[in-house]
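If you are new to this repository, start here. Below is one unmodified record pulled from the training split, so you can see the exact layout before writing a loader.
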Amino acid sequence: MERRRLGRTGLPVSVLGFGCGAIGGLLVKGDASEQRHAIERALEAGVTYFDTAPLYGDGASETNLGRAFAAMGGVPAGVIVGTKVRIDPASVDHAPEAIRQSIKASLRRLHVDHVPLMQLHTSITSERGRGVTPGDVLGPILDGLLGVRDAGLTDHLGITANGDTDAIREVIRSGEFGSGQAMVNALNPSAGWPGHVPSDAHDFSGLIADAITHDVGVIVIRSLAAGALAARDGRHVNAGNPGGIAGEDYATDLSRARRLASLTDVLGLEGPGELSVRLAQSTPGVGTVIVGFSDTAQLDDAIRWTSRGPLRPEAIARTLHAASR
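And here is the target side for that same chain:
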């Protein structure tokens, strides 16, 4: 599997990342034996980036990932685990202590003494309340993150690029963070392809161009629009409730995803899921594309799609046109 440099972190990440979140749900609610089987299958296919957070299942994701790796004798060489910390907007002044406590708890659950990547898991907004402001991020939050990095608990710092576009852009342009998690999918590719966004969706207005300019590694999230782009008959028993990213509405996304089926037939693809994952992987500046899984069969789908490489320029153009309608 192709590996890409994650911006100035220098971390070599697989183009397909293993999402350990609650929406896919395998690492939160799945059976322990299938969790380990899926992780082993991913490693066998060349997946090197595993994305988790304390928020996923109230620590269950980190606990289950840590248990699986411990049973293998530890995190395999070359594997990169990224976790996160959420800061309550009402408690920004106490961010340094909250960050220290959060990462220490994460390390215990993961059975490691440090993680390669620690990321802010709070939306960045123009006003405090809906999220934290750029001033908050570049003030006490950054102080706390630098503190745990200086203590050797993490190597690199990142953000989740969710919230108000201009506020996110300010933080990206600060040069203080090595990675950013950005939403890119076939329904809303605007973070990587400016101008291509439905009129009622959140416009991320080419944020990835700023990431490229400032050598911020891009980790794509929501590549399947919380599962809408790969939905079959109902949601999997392990799948969590969708929602949480600016502008997302699962019912609307599901309807739009179904309308993409005719395009994927013309392009000779398996369906909107393949189209979306490969579009994200084809987006300039992207390091890794996280896909969340409810079971091993979904992981196998993503591995197979990824093995086919980037989309052809014609397919990209037609997908962007469809996203703009």
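Two things worth knowing about this chain: The chain has twelve helices and ten strands. Strands lie at 3-5, 12-14, 16-19, 49-51, 80-85, 115-120, 154-160, 179-183, 217-221, 286-292.
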